[in-house]
Amino acid sequence: MMLALVISSLGGGGGERIMLDLARGWLARGHGVTIITLSSPATDAYPIPVGARRIALDCMGGEGGWIAAPWRVLRRLQRLRSALRETAPDVVIAFMVPTTALAVVAARDLGARVLVHELVDPGMEKVGAAYAWLRRVTYPRAAIVIAQTPRAAAVLRRLAPGSDVRVAPGFVPPFVIEEPPPPRTTPHPIFLAVGRLAPQKGFDLLLAAFARLASSLPEWGLRIVGSGALERELGMQAARLGIASRVEWVPRTPRPWDQVTHDTIFVLSSRYEGFPNVLLEAMALGLPPVAFDCPSGPAEIVTPGVNGVLVPADSVEALAAAMQALAANTALRQRLAAAALDVRCDWSLDRALDSWDQYLRPSSTAA
Description:
Elements: E1 2-7, H1 14-28, E2 32-37, E3 53-56, H2 69-87, E4 91-95, H3 99-106, E5 113-117, H4 129-138, E6 144-147, H5 150-159, E7 165-167, H6 174-178, E8 190-194, H7 203-213, E9 221-225, H8 231-240, E10 247-250, E11 264-268, H9 277-284, E12 289-293, H10 298-301, E13 309-312, H11 316-327, H12 330-340, H13 343-346, H14 349-360
Parallel strand pairs: 1-2, 1-4, 2-3, 4-5, 5-6, 6-7, 8-9, 8-11, 9-10, 11-12, 12-13
Helix pairs in contact: 2-3, 3-4, 7-11
């Protein structure tokens, strides 16, 4: 089967990496894969899988301002349609709004089934009014709309009525298992968080929680791996809270887990997620997690008291209490860490590909 995977770019985001891991899996299962990006290769942060074809349309420029926006969208549609006509795929799979909506329109009447994959929780991640309308109009024309969680699927059914919405699970990226981080020791144990320095990731809440327990756990530090617009603001917050010397900031890196030390607790402080792949990765490395029970995904991955700790979303007090309790109990950390490793099997790429295989076939009747 010939697959065309469409995405805006191959920049350093988690959605791009998910698409490329799926591409490698489909190549291994004998499918042909063409990766089409609206951007140029100059923006790539990840390599193209061996065996995949790449088409870069280089039409993501913002020249002309808002007045020229309709013409830019039309140009993207024309170039994408030409690329799809030339590659003649059996299935087009588009990733991430607004590229998903553009792909549905571009592939119309070309004979390919179109699947769109939403990698965020559409009830939390807002798009502009124009693209919200376009999603409502185009998604019912796709063969299948795929979400990562049942909650996200329910929201998509409401936002795009008439769409055939299904769920395909997230998965542990193979590199986490195949290329484990090198052993690293530091003078002290750490709480580790990974993600964009953006409001969604809730690092302001994490800083506030750490400030509550810092004096009672003088040997523990906080390490945050990521880059983003809130870097200066979060640094100032740490200074105001009197914890600046206890917080280490590590810029975004393709290997964030190299920051794992001999004694690490992973913390997910997000206000919301599409699906918390970073949580799966941490658990696959045997890190005991503490996570907000935010929409969507943490509650599907973490069984409280078995393989991690869940606390009420946005509660700084509850997060601080859980972090402190886990830091003070070595036996509990070890027990949760051992159980966390089960995500390697429970949330494997093969399991995800099996779900997708049902959707690639025209006769799909999966619920």
